[in-house]
Amino acid sequence: MDRIYSDSLKLHYKLKGKLEIRSKSPLSSNRLLALNYTPGVAQACREIFAHPKKVFDLTIKDNTVAIVTDGSRVLGLGNIGALAALPVMEGKAMIFKEFAGINAFPICIKSQDLETIVETVRQIAPVFGAINLEDIEAPKCFEVLRQLQDLGIPVIHDDQHGTAVVVLAALINAAKVVKKPFRELSVVVNGAGAAGTAIAKLLLCIGVGKKVSGPVKSVIVVDSKGIIFSGRDGLNAQKAGLAEFTNLQKLKGGLADAIVGADVFIGVSHPNVLSKEMVALMAKGAIVFALANPEPEISPKEALLGGAAVVGTGRSDYPNQINNAVAFPGIFKGVLMVRASQVNPQMLVAAAHAIASVVKNPSKNNFIPAAFHKGVVKKIAFAVGAAAIESGVTGR
To answer: Which of 17, 125, 151, 329 falls 20 to 30 Å from 157 in CA-CA distance?
Structure first.
């Protein structure tokens, strides 16, 4: 067992859970007990009953997120179920608190039935100011997200929204490094699950109602059966939808065919599917984002040997980590700050540009800020909040 795994297991045994709940007000006297609980608390209840929106001012709802999973698609582990997914959700709650000051709590649902997940979220929604869907398998995750858009609070699927935002931010700056106009980039996305679908949509500005730095010139999406194109046999509804706005030239074949002449490779798939020989087929000044975890589609060393000019991965032990932990704390802080009712593509694009702007002089070894970068959360939050107000989805 690698040292990081054994050390982590020791830490988990020691902590017996990485989270705890603390009171903001002491209960050190009868007076304080009466103010925080009965009889005084009754007045707060009456106030919310008469004016429901005051729940944000009088309870934890204003700054609390539910991290909801069924454990069906846990990163690097697959379908391990709700119980085994709990340590991951605890870790994510820590990131919310430490990076953005947001209270977050794991909601691990035993059932993997779509309707049960949706109904469970509906029933617990009164407690939370936003919902973070996490590690739910595709294509189920798309339908869960769609059915929950009427909750009146943002429902964000971080595997889609967070990943797409940080990839867009990284690509904005990587394009500057290789001196290629963003709008002229041809992109291959390997992986057609939640992340791959969201990345393709955001790079092509699907649903964005105003001018931005994109869209890129073209996107081709490749899944385990090859290039996705309109009319390909066996496409599910989600992949058929992808085919409507990607690979408009209807190129057929596999990854080796798609990669020829491409400016950008974005992998959200499986280890070691991209070879240095394939990278050599890409355009000069190639950008390679190999984001599979724990092992990337190609190692940075091999990608550079193949001729890549800029390389990023999802791992913290390699340079240029492209990780949604850079994005989601700020995104959620922004939607909570303005009490947004939903998240839309305009807000995601604003988040990406905010992240990209943190790196003043992008270089091949520094084009994306780290999750620990001071000020990145606040910058994202203000950009997302402003975009929410501009697009009319704020409750304030």
So the answer is: 17
Residue 210 has pLDDT above 90, yes or no: no
130: nearest Cα among 100, 172, 164, 163: 100
The domains of the chain, with CATH numbers, are 15-159 (3.40.50.10380), 160-396 (3.40.50.720)
Query: Which listed residue (5, 13, 54, 92) is catalytic?
Result: 92
Residue type present at position 95: I
Amino acid in the structure at residue 117: I
Is the pLDDT reported for residue 396 higher than 80?
A: no
Mean pLDDT of 115-127: 98
37, 110, 250, 301: the catalytic one is 37
Q: Is 13 among the residues known to form the active site?
A: no
Is this prediction's pTM over 0.90? yes
Task: Give catalytic status of residue 379 as yes or no.
Answer: no
Q: Rounded to an integer, what is the distance from CA 205 to the centroid of its chain? A: 16
DSSP 160: T
